[in-house]
Structures are given as structure tokens and as C-alpha cells.
Amino acid sequence: MSNADQLEVFLRLLIALGLGAAVGLEREFRGHEAGLRTSALVCLGAAMFGEASDIFGDSRIAAGVVQGIGFLGAGLIFQKGDGVAGVTTAATIWVLAALGLLVAVHLTLVAVLLAALLIVLLELAPISNYIFSHSHTHVGDPDVRRREPEARDTRDRLDSSPER
Question: Which run of H or E residues covers position 78?
Fold first, then answer.
């Protein structure tokens, strides 16, 4: 591989790093897990594996990114009270890996547009939180413990009952 080709690969990796950092900046600004560094590294790593897959002509390398990111994302999801937390962060990590792979296969414009769309979608969180905090029927509402006992899951009533 010539120096010019290597420089082209390096520039694509920088683009992936920048896209991941841009999304990570939003996550960091909102105080969520997987901030700037993690997001940038996931996008960069996926792009690196995508480039290796392209260079060696073995699509199994890029396919391994999906499995590896799935494992990483599963580690970010945990039970919190009556619900789960970290699902959006895990999904964001999954999309960041896809963005890195898009950059690696020379679909930079698509990756940039999707990164912008992802940031807009993540920025809508305060609006959806407001809507769901005023809804009494949303299952995934993080404030479910503040509701009346009849609105809670039956497990909560059993857990909060006095011991005999």
C-alpha cells in the first residue's frame, strides 16, 4: 500500500474519530455514560476494523464489529428500580460503530448526515422526558416509583409490604 493510500486511510479514520467525538460531546454535555472519548474511540475502532476488512478483503472482520459492539452495549444496560437504564447509550454505541464502518467503506457523506441526525435525535431527550413525565401510562417512565401504588407493578407492592 502506497503512502498516499495510507494517508487516505488515516484521513478517513480522523473523520470517524471526529464524528464519534461530535456525538460523544452531546452525550457528555447531557451527563450520560459513554461520553466524548468512548464515543470517539468506538467510532474510530469500527472504522479501523472496517478499513482492515477492506484492505484484506475479508468481510468477516467488519462483521465482528457488530458482535463486539453488541457485547459492549449489553454491558451498558442495567436494571434501575422498576426499569432499565443505559438502553439509549447502548444503542448510540451501536450506531457509532455503524458510522465508523460507513466511513471505512467510503460513505463519508452518509456517515456525516447520519451523525448529525443522531445528534438531533439525542437532543430531543428533554422533550421526550417532559412528555413522558406528564404521562401516567408510560411503562419506561423513570419516575414510576412516585406514582400511586395501584399504578405500579405488583412486584413493587410485594417488595414494599412490611415483613411478617
Answer: strand 78-80
SS3 at position 4 = helix
Per-residue pLDDT of 126-142, as tens digits, reads: 787 778 777 755 555 45
CA distance 164 to 150: 22
- Residue 22 is placed in which grid cell? 461530535
Residues 103 and 138 in one domain: no
Domains in the chain, number = 2
Question: What global pTM score does this model have?
Answer: 0.75
Classify residue 118 as exposed, middle or buried by CB count within 10 Å of its CB (0-12, 13-18, 19+).
Answer: buried
CA angle 50–54–57, rounded 5-degree value: 130
Rounded Cα gap, residues 164 and 154, in angstroms:
18
Give dist(CA 103, CA 82) in Å, integer. 39
Each residue of 30-50: pLDDT tens digit?
Answer: 888 888 999 999 999 999 999
Please tell me whether residue 143 adopts helix, strand or coil conformation: coil
Q: By three-state DSSP, how is residue 132 classified? A: helix
Same domain, 137 and 116: no
Please tell me whether residues 93 and 37 are part of one structural domain.
Answer: yes
